[in-house]
Amino acid sequence: AGLAIAETPPLEAKDTYRVGFPQMESNNPWRIAQTKSFHDTAETCGWDLIATDAAGSAAKQVADVDSMIAQGIDVLFLPPREEKPLIPAVMKAKAAGIPTFLVDRSVDPSVAQAGDHYVSFLGSDFIEQGQRAADWLIANFSGEKGVIVELEGTTGSSPANDRKKGFDDQIATDDRFEIVASQTGDFARDLGRQVMETLLQAHPDVNVVYAHNDEMAIGAIQALELAGRKPGEDVIIVSIDGTRDALQAIIDGKMGVTVESSPFFGPLACDVMKRYAAGEEIPGWIKVEDRIFTKDNAADHIDEAY
Ligand code: GYE
């Protein structure tokens, strides 16, 4: 028997492409900056862009992809809200002969693979982001015992799964720390605030908050301040993204660190698409390199933040 060769649909080299970008939600600055990056790139990359907003529903995101397929897109840039529910969208795009690039989040690797069901994943190493947040905490925590509350991202999303794994495994190597609670705040500011309010009552001795993104970290800061705590002084906040509000919180002394996770995917998407159309071999993961923001450099980057 011969080898089965997995192949992704080809992309013709041409001047204009009909491009699908089914955004998952628009309730935070990260998502708004990412959508804007695709719109900005449409003008410079020859894209006739169809962008939708699934308003936080994986089912709607799948339906949005269906309708883009029906509208004859040439290429799909998909940010899958959750790892499993978006698999059907990836499969249907492939069946329709449309090359798909996953942007910023991935899908369940036991079901769908790069170089077969989709061309490539463009995004950060979320395990490493979690590790780096833990490394900063381990190096900068001066107390005796670190009582950690963890605010998780959207349940079933690749960044929530991997940011948890990276952080939890790394923090387990230092026995000063204990994670006393880990709950989802759905990557949202308001839910982060609510969950923090509840957890604060159950764990009044908390002195570290690890949030999987800046929006939840800002929500947690609000909850802590409302309870009379002093974020940055009696509670250390570590987070991920690098939003404007987070950099401002670092400058104000309320947040310790945020590991970068950039939303500016448009230019990279354009470049990778053109290389694919030119017949270049594309790696299954195009890893975005992240910076780290602390009091040492937050002020230098706030002007370019979103
Ligand atoms: O960190 C978060 C957003 O998928 C990497 O999604 C992205 C994450 C980002 O809601 O703020």
UniProtKB/TrEMBL annotation:
**InterPro entries assigned:** Peripla_BP_I, SBP_2_dom
Question: What broad taxonomic lineage does this protein's source fall under?
Answer: Bacteria, Pseudomonadati, Pseudomonadota, Alphaproteobacteria, Rhodobacterales
Do you know which Pfam families this protein is assigned to? Answer: Peripla_BP_4
Domain of life, per UniProt, equals Bacteria
Protein name as it appears in the record: ABC transporter periplasmic-binding protein YtfQ
Keywords (alphabetical) are: Signal
Which family does the record assign?
Belongs to the bacterial solute-binding protein 2 family.
Tell me which CDD domains the record gives.
PBP1_galactofuranose_YtfQ-like
Q: Which residues form the Periplasmic binding protein domain?
A: 25-281
The record's GO CC annotations read: cell envelope
From the Swiss-Prot or TrEMBL record, state where the protein is found: Cell envelope
- Gene Ontology molecular function: carbohydrate binding
- UniProt keyword Signal present: yes
